[in-house]
Design goal:
By secondary structure, this protein is mostly helical. Helix content is 44%, strand content 6%. It is built from three helices and two strands. The chain has helices at residues 10-39, 52-63, 85-100, and strands at 43-46, 113-116. Strands 1-2 form a two-stranded antiparallel ribbon. α2 (52-63) crosses α3 (85-100). The longest helix is centred in the first third of the chain and has 30 residues, at 10-39.
Length: 131
């Protein structure tokens, strides 16, 4: 027995194309939103190439006049260890950056810091992140 296929009405083809176009546009929009969100995740950390003296000077400023919250890098607090100038400076730089980045603050610290997209939190030490 030979079966003949009926042609699909043009209106059905148009509806399918329109539906496919809507699905593609929604998918592209969702991907774009996810990419933008991922790009916004930035932390400010000490530059490995900066000297301890440069880091200490910038750390002192950030925790003093800069207004960073340095309470978590004090002795017996969750971010005290490792007790290095680099680690304490990274925490302080990020605290300042997250607090002021939407008000003109930068992650510069006289070239002692840089931006990273990798969360520097470790163990019980959680670095702040704000949108």
């Amino acid at each position: 027995m030979l079966m003949l296929l009926q042609p699909v009405p043009k209106i059905m083809l148009l509806r399918q194309r329109n539906l496919l176009a809507v699905i593609v546009l929604i998918s592209i929009s969702l991907i774009s939103v996810l990419r933008v969100e991922a790009q916004l995740e930035e932390w400010c950390i000490a530059d490995e190439q900066a000297s301890d003296a440069e880091l200490q000077s910038a750390l002192d400023w950030a925790c003093g006049k800069g207004g960073a919250d340095c309470s978590k890098i004090q002795k017996d607090q969750p971010c005290y260890l490792p007790n290095t100038v680099k680690d304490h400076a990274s925490f302080a730089f990020n605290s300042y950056f997250q607090k002021y980045k939407n008000k003109g603050g930068t992650c510069y610290f006289k070239s002692a810091a840089l931006i990273t997209g990798v969360d520097p939190s470790h163990g019980g030490c959680k670095y702040d992140y704000s949108h």
